[in-house]
Amino acid sequence: MLAQFQTVGQALFTQGLVCSQGGNLSIKLGEHLVITHRGSTLGSIQEGDLVETGVNKNNRLTPLASKELEIHRCIYKNTSALAIVHAHPPYAVALSFTEREIVPCDLEGQVLLSRVPVLGTEEVAKLEDLSQEIARLLNEYRVVLVRGHGSFAVSQLLEEAYYCTAALEQSCRLLYLLKALRVAPG
Ligand SMILES: [Zn+2]
């Protein structure tokens, strides 16, 4: 289990999809989930960087979990996801300020993602509502982008959620370049 967290964490870090202490990963195991430690560095995850806690219940390790634990819990409670990758991909976050949804114009993005909704934090006042809205959208989409913050990707495997995150950033980089060249995508 540690190996898959390390592989995905390192890939996210080396590709610049998270900065030093940003982003978090989790997987669901029955009534439990394993999530990265609060403030852990995804580029160099060690055994002690993983925290196991309940999907519904707290335990003594809960305070050590990523500060975005409640969003992960809400997603697991309301979707069939078994793995979540939360990242801060810079081109995707940049486009989140100007777009209401990301529509990839490259084949991989179209196949993997179809489209990615952008959720504005001004539309949802409380963190609780934001979590609910993210979870609701993730029943329909594989990735949701939160404006000015980052992406939440779900799948059955951590690696698949990572592929979707990387595909989103790839698509956004291309969309950004086309915008810069003033070429209309599609
Ligand atoms: Zn974040």
Radius of gyration: 16 Å
Shape verdict? globular
Strand content: 15-25%
Query: Number of DSSP helices?
Result: 6
What tags apply to this protein structure?
186 residues; alpha+beta; eight-stranded mixed sheet; binds zinc ion; single chain; 8 strands; globular; L-fuculose-1-phosphate Aldolase; 6 helices
Commentary on this structure:
- The longest helix is centred in the C-terminal third of the chain and has 23 residues, at 158-180.
- This protein has 6 helices and 8 strands.
- Strands 3-2-1-4-8-7-6-5 form an 8-stranded mixed sheet, sandwiched between helices.
- The protein is an alpha+beta fold.
- Helix 1 (2-14) runs parallel beside helix 6 (158-180) and helix 2 packs across helix 5.
- The model has no long low-confidence stretch (mean pLDDT 94).
- Strand 1 (24-29) and strand 2 form a beta hairpin.
- It has a single domain (2-180), classed as Class II aldolase/adducin N-terminal domain (L-fuculose-1-phosphate Aldolase).
- Bound molecules: zinc ion.
- Zinc ion binds at residues 22, 68, 86, 88, 149-150.
Task: Describe the secondary-structure layout.
Layout: H1 2-14, E1 24-29, E2 32-36, E3 50-54, H2 69-78, E4 83-87, H3 90-96, E5 101-102, H4 107-113, E6 116-119, H5 127-137, E7 143-146, E8 150-155, H6 158-180
Parallel strand pairs: 6-7
Antiparallel strand pairs: 1-2, 1-4, 2-3, 4-8, 5-6, 7-8
Helix pairs in contact: 1-6, 2-5, 3-6, 4-6
This protein binds zinc ion.
The site of zinc ion has 6 residues, from loops.
